[in-house]
Amino acid sequence: MSAQGVPVDDAFGGLFARQRRWTRRLPRGWPLLTVYLVLIGIFVIAGIFADLIAPHDPTDQNLISRLQGPVWQEDGESEHFLGTDGLGRDSLSRLIKGSQTSLLVIATVIPGSLILGTAAGLLAGWRRGAFDSFAMRLVEVQLAFPALLFALLIAAMLGPSLRNVIVILIVFLWAPYARLVRAEVLSLREREFVVAARTLGATDLRVMVQHLLPNVVNSVVILATLNVSTVIIAEASLSFLGAGAGPETISWGKMVAEGRDLLKIRFWLTGFPGITIMIVALVGNLLGDWLRDYLDPQLRNIQ
After folding, report:
1. Chain centroid to CA 280: how far?
2. Which of 185, 197, 250, 300 could bond 97 through an S-S bridge, CB–CB 3.0 to 4.6 Å?
3. Range scoring the smallest mean pLDDT among 14-23, 230-239, 277-286
4. What are the residues whose beta carbons fall under 8 Å from the beta carbon of 77, sequence distance 6 or more?
5. How confident is the model at residue 117 (pLDDT cuts 50, 70, 90)?
6. Residue 245 confidence (pLDDT) above 80
7. What pLDDT is attached to residue 109?
8. CA 276 to chain centre
9. What does the buried/exposed string (b/e) look like for 123-155 if buried means 16 or more CB atoms within 10 Å of the residue's CB?
10. CA 279, 285, 287: angle at the middle one, nearest 5?
11. Contact partners, residue 192, CB within 8 Å, separation at least 6
12. What's the pLDDT score for residue 7?
C-alpha cells in the first residue's frame, strides 16, 4: 500500500495505462520521426543563425595555421575544432556558413518549383486541350534530358552565381510536380463533388482552388520533401564543378572541391562537408518516406 492508501500495483498500472494511451496518439514511427526532426532542426538553426553560431569568420585567412587537423589529431587545436583548410580558414565555421547557402537554395527552389508545377498541372488537367498538350510535351522533353548535365551547361553559359543556380533548379524541378498534379486532377475531375460544384455554377478557378487543390496537397508535399535531397545534391554538384555559387559564396560543394587535391593527406577537408551533404540528403528522403506512409490511409492503417 502507498502512503495514500492506494495499492502500488494499481498506481503503476494506471500510470502505464495513461502512458500507453498517450503513446497511441503519437504518429506511427515517432521515434525515428523525432530523430529526423532533430537533425533537420539542427540544419535549419545552423543555416538561419550561421553568423552567430560560427566560432570564427569563415573567410578569415591565417596561413600560419593552414591545414591543421581536427582537435583529435596530433596537430589539432581546440581553437579550430574541425581543423583548417589550405588558406587557414576554420573548417567548422565554413561548414556552418555553407548550411546557410544550402538552406537558402532549398527555401527558394522547392517553393518556386512547387508553385509553378502545381499551377501548370492544375491548368493542364482541368482545362485539357492545347495547353495540356503543350505543357505535357514540354515536361516529357525536359524529363528526357539528363537534368544535371543540362543544368551544368546552362550554368556554365550564365556564369557561376547562386541566383543562377536557384533559377536553373526551379526551371528543372517544376516538371515532376506538373505531371503528378495533372494525373491526380484527371482522376478527380469526374468525381461527384466536382460535378456538383460545376452544377451549382462554380467557376473554373473556384473548382481548382477549393475542390481540386486540397486533394492534391498531400502528394505535392511528399514530393517536395523528397526533393530536398535532389536540391542539396544538385547545388553541391554544380558548386563542386565550378558552375554553382559564385566565388564569394561558401557552399558544401565548393568545400569538397577545394579539398579534393589534399584527399590523401587531409581527407577531412572533403570528408566533413561530404558527410554533411549525405546526412541532410538522407534525412530528407527518410522524412519524405515517413510522410508518405503517414498521409496515405492504406499505408497508415497497416499495423
Report:
1. 8
2. 250
3. 14-23
4. 65, 68, 71
5. very high
6. no
7. 93
8. 13
9. bbbbeeeeebeebbeebeebeeeebeeebbebb
10. 95
11. none
12. 53
Q: Using pLDDT thresholds of 50, 70 and 90, give the confidence band for residue 12.
A: very low
Q: Strand pairing partners for 84?
A: 90
183 CB-contact burial (10 Å; exposed 0-12 / middle 13-18 / buried 19+): middle
* Cα 55 from Cα 58, distance rounded (Å): 9
Cβ atoms of 229 and 79 closer than 8 Å: no
Which residue matches cell numbers 522547392? Answer: 110
- The pTM of the full predicted model, rounded to 2 decimals, is 0.81
Grid cell for residue 285: 528522403
Q: Report DSSP letters for 17-57, one per residue.
A: HHHHHHHHHSPTTHHHHHHHHHHHHHHHHHHHTHHHH-SS-
C-alpha cell at position 153: 551547361
Phi, psi of 146 (to 5 degrees): -65, 110
